[in-house]
Amino acid sequence: MWTRRLAALALGLAGPVAADPTVDAMEAEWRSWAEAHQVTATALSVVREDGPALTRSIDMDPGAPVILASVTKPIIAACLGAVLEETRWSWTTTLGDLEDRLNGAGLTVPEDWHDVDLGALSSMSSGLVRDVTQGGYFRRQNAEQTEDLEQAANSLATEREAAAGYVYNNGNYAILGVVIAALTGETTESACQARVTDPLGLKTAGLSDRWRAMGSAGGWEMALPELAIFTLALPALTEGAPTSEAGDGAAFGGGTLIWETPDGPFFLMRGALCGGFFGIGDMAIVLRREDGIAAAVAIGGCHPAETILALEEALAYAAAGPGD
Predict the structure, then answer these.
(1) Helix (H, G, I), strand (E, B), or coil: what is residue 222?
(2) Which site among 108, 143, 175, 277 is 20 to 30 Å from 134 CA-CA?
(3) Contact 87, 183 (CB under 8 A)
(4) Which of 165-174, 268-277, 312-321 is least confident?
(5) 257 beta partners
(6) CATH of domain 44-319
């Protein structure tokens, strides 16, 4: 029932939109932000449960696949959760428990990583501090396969800092990509399409040809309207995924940042192929309120961090609705 209802939303994205004050406010904030910050290429999709769906764009094709970068991570977290439901494994399963399977996939697990569980990896609290994945992807565009295995091995070769707490690190998700492949006997892409994106009717979701090397850490793409639908489904897809305290009142779990508010959880994730917010690349942002409204934004090119934060704050304010 859930997946059928969400898939049906896609049919209305390009059609007439019923008046809705919150959706209208989100569009207005997005347009005002683009004008104020001189953003010349961007698109917005907003969906509500049992409500209107809207897609708008400024000098950007909203139907073209958007490079998700780190917004790939909630797909991987949702996928792993589905795989765990099919098997005898759980979020508390450790890399040591999976040693034979990971060895069979070509990944050796050092002794000091044996007690790290899948929940710690997914919530960025594994003790992986030095991120060895950064930078090289820009030199390895149009690769024929992902670098999940290489980046997982490189990450596990670093010194683990068990008491570090939350540290955002792409290597955690490269490792989880290898775990998914090892547990399913499929490629991570096909496993996650079958369990996450295909049931939602998301036909454009998959690894980007250009950024395939980034794999489970950031290599997926999806058309913006479908990304909004995925975001709407996110809490159900990642239910039960462990979280860690990420600072500023936020937690990280299921591949996203989560804030608890008086109206329920608020989910946010951003992705950017921008070295320090400059150079080549695109940006994607998703946000979702527990009361059933979700938005996805694509931004052409790279922009300063303060520009992106201004958009996130504006959309969050508008999503809260009148009087909040």
Answers:
(1) strand
(2) 108
(3) yes
(4) 268-277
(5) 252, 268
(6) 3.40.710.10
